[in-house]
Design a protein that fits this description.
By secondary structure, the protein is an alpha+beta fold. It contains nine helices and twelve strands. Helix 1 runs parallel beside helix 5 and helix 2 runs parallel beside helix 4. The protein binds fe (ii) ion. The site of fe (ii) ion has 4 residues, from helix 5.
Length: about 425
């Protein structure tokens, strides 16, 4: 509350009352978002068996049980311990078990060992969630710093909701029974006729990054001037049918389409198609959250590495858009929707980047090497995660050989 607004007679008192009310409303809205987000995580896991919660099917994947605990640890470690007087941690070992990557917080179990945590039990982790939620109701929700951390904690938990779906998909795919997580596949056919054209970006100075009000991550800031190379970007992502043409044309056997590192991965890992694709005789099938399904031509192609996206673009005589071209095209009306999209931009700090303060400086900035930027949002991203309407400045990032995220791509050509 700005001090000038209070203490000037009746009018001041009125303003102070208004401000108090606004703060209460903000706190109330935040409380609702918090509860919604905590419940959503549990709803995602409610479809799983107890046994599903413990599996770590690759070093990138975390067991669902770990996500349930880690998202609670985030609130316990960053809010309850520093902010709630007399708070006692739920369990002294949990910081070691459920700290993800915060060096400032202390040592932790190796990421690839998370699947060893048969203990604590799922039941105990649910008790942990309840314990954390109950104590969070006792903190001061009108304190500004607390509200900022809560807001970040909610967005953090939403990121883990998407990770949960990615990980569940990989865990179920790795099980020979190939169970279905839900009834409908997560990706739908695209309305190809409606938006199969191109979006245009003119050459010239433009701006990149977030400057509006509301929540954004530190890596989206500051908004800054950039030179935009004129380009046209396809109005939609590449479809399975289109990608199949690349496979059938021998794309995975022809080194000239591939970056050197990409070609090395193709050979080392025996890639012949995107992750989750399987050949059944002369046909291809794909694993979805609804189980194995025949490939459908008009469904967006997903789960491919940056290298595969880049090779396809090269084969087409095109390229991947830069993140600045992508953002400019969306600001000019280019639609996006059900997949994160590879760009050709390495994940780097914007000029003048300032990480979040304190422990949260480790949230994004320290990952800014050897990763590529993905833009958009996906079928696994919670509705409200990018704000409403979804902001186009959001920067996701993955190593170039990573395939388990809900990722696809669109092609572009740069002009004059
Ligand atoms: Fe996390």
């Amino acid at each position: 509350v700005p001090n000038e607004a209070v203490g000037h007679g009746a009018h001041g008192a009125e303003i102070a009352f208004e401000i108090d009310r606004a703060m209460e409303q903000t706190a109330e809205a935040l409380r609702e978002q918090f509860q919604e987000s905590r419940q959503e995580t549990e709803r995602i896991c409610a479809q799983l068996l107890v046994e599903d919660h413990c599996v770590q099917s690759s070093p990138d994947v975390s067991p669902p049980k770990w996500h349930l605990a880690h998202t609670s640890w985030f609130f316990e470690n960053f809010l309850l311990i520093p902010k709630l007087r007399g708070y006692r941690a739920f369990h002294p070992a949990y910081s070691y078990l459920f700290n993800s990557y915060y060096e400032s917080v202390g040592s932790r179990i190796a990421k690839s060992d998370r699947g060893l945590l048969s203990r604590p039990s799922l039941e105990e982790i649910h008790r942990y969630r309840y314990w954390v939620d109950r104590h969070l109701s006792e903190i001061d929700w009108q304190d500004e710093q607390t509200r900022r951390i809560l807001e970040l904690g909610i967005h953090h938990e939403q990121q883990h909701q998407e990770l949960l779906l990615m990980d569940i998909k990989h865990i179920f795919f790795s099980n020979p029974l190939r169970p279905a997580y839900q009834e409908r596949p997560e990706l739908e056919k695209m309305p190809v006729e409606a938006n199969s054209g191109w979006a245009w970006v003119e050459s010239g100075m433009g701006e990149l990054g977030f400057s509006a009000s509301g929540f954004a991550f530190d890596n989206e800031r500051p908004r800054h001037r950039v030179y935009l190379h004129g380009a046209r970007l396809r109005n939609r992502v590449v479809s399975c049918g289109e990608y199949l043409e690349f496979i059938e044309a021998g794309g995975y056997r022809e080194p000239r389409y591939w970056l050197s590192e990409g070609w090395a991965r193709v050979r080392e890992r025996g890639w012949q198609a995107p992750l989750y694709w399987e050949r059944q005789g002369s046909r291809w099938e794909v694993f979805t959250l609804a189980g194995m399904r025949p490939i459908e031509e008009l469904v967006p192609v997903a789960h491919l590495s940056f290298y595969e996206a880049d090779a396809y673009a090269r084969w087409k005589g095109c390229e991947l858009p830069g993140e600045e071209q992508w953002e400019a095209a969306v600001e000019r009306g280019m639609p996006y929707g059900s997949l994160w999209e590879w760009t050709r931009s390495p994940y780097l700090p914007y000029p003048g980047f300032r990480p979040f303060q304190g422990d949260f400086s480790e949230y994004n900035g320290k990952f800014m090497s050897n990763q590529m930027v993905m833009r958009g949002k996906s079928c696994g991203t919670p509705e409200t995660h990018l704000g409403e309407p979804a902001r186009p400045t959001y920067r996701n990032f993955y190593p170039p050989d990573s395939r388990w995220q809900f990722g696809g791509f669109r092609i572009a050509t740069s002009g004059s």
